[in-house]
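Quick check before the chapter quiz. The format below is the same one you will see on the exam, so make sure you can read both the input and the output lines.
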Amino acid sequence: MYLFFALLRKMYSMNIAWYGIIFLSIACLNSCSNDSNSMLLITTTSTENTGLIDKLVSQFEEKTVYNVKVVAVGTGAALRMGERGDGDVLLVHAPAAEINFVNDGFGISRTQVMKNWFVIVGPSADPAKIKGLSVDEGFKAIAESRSAFVSRGDDSGTHKKEMALWVIAGFQVTPSGEDWYAATGQGMSATLTVALQTQAYTLTDKGTWLATNLDSDQVVLIDQEDELLNVYSVILLNSAAENINHNGARAFRDFMLDAETQNMIEMFGREQYGESLFYRIN
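Here is the expected output.
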């Protein structure tokens, strides 16, 4: 397994090159959609993996005059795109980074619009015996037992949360140099697949796990703790930035707060998966 993790680290360095391709694609999308009825929404992979963003965009387009293009990346990448004015509005989930983004003048407002929870998943055999532990105790048990752990390692909202949880567990830095720890540099769905294939633990949002992990040996082991709350926010970009559809961005924020939209968010996936993938903000 550790040989596989070594190969995974090499693949992670190669994945970084793909970000350049993504940025070039976004520049094209942005330059092609500057009319007043078109807008570019930068969001996270979890909203894409679950299918929620397609549902939201479809309803938004039905109710408004706007045509929406979507780019789904990790929150860190989304915020960097927002800094450059590469999109019109952000839907992201890394509160501390979002607050810094607004305080630094790149955004004019941050509005919480929905939530779910992060969970720690792993093989049903649970080699580190973390089931029933608190999240900090669980991370300590994984490290002490040297059980395999797969990180996204992509500066996404989930990755940022994972790094914060290692600190809460008493680690000064993320154990990225350990042979039992590996980063994929990929989105949540791909990282869950790697964790499943290597019998490793990982941190994921509950919605993505429910939507992509049916009938497997991977199970939720730590869930529903206060430290694992996962809040999504809409950020409106600085009004001084050029080529941004501010009216469309405000319309999307208002749409996300509408009672009908909030009900749809909470009901999304419930019939298929037996529980909601996301929840209304209040």
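If your answer matched, good. Residues 2-31 form the longest helix (30 residues).
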